Amino acid sequence: MQLYLLREDLKELANKTISTITKKERAGKCTVILYSKNHYAVFDLDEYSFILMDLKADAKERLCRKIKSWNKSPP
Which residue range is the domain that position 16 belongs to? Predict the structure, then answer.
């Protein structure tokens, strides 16, 4: 969603989607929305942080590599 916000042609759709999910899930401002294909999950930021901290070492390493590759790619 964050990448969509950076693109002018998708910014309006992204904002509408965020607004709809926030209302539907009664999510506050500090939430994390995860997408996978046609599914999504909404987490409180603290809850999501604890989930990440509990990942096994190999899963943390894979996540770090994935994040680094996303940061190298232009939106």
Answer: 2-72
The total number of structural domains in the chain stands at 1
For 33-48, write each residue's pLDDT tens digit: 887 777 778 888 899 9
CA–CA distance, 39 with 12 (Å, rounded to integer): 21
- Contact (CB, 8 A) for 40 and 27: no
- According to DSSP, residue 28 is labeled -
Whether the per-residue pLDDT at 74 is higher than 80: the answer is no
CA distance 24 to 75: 28
Q: pTM for the complete prediction?
A: 0.58
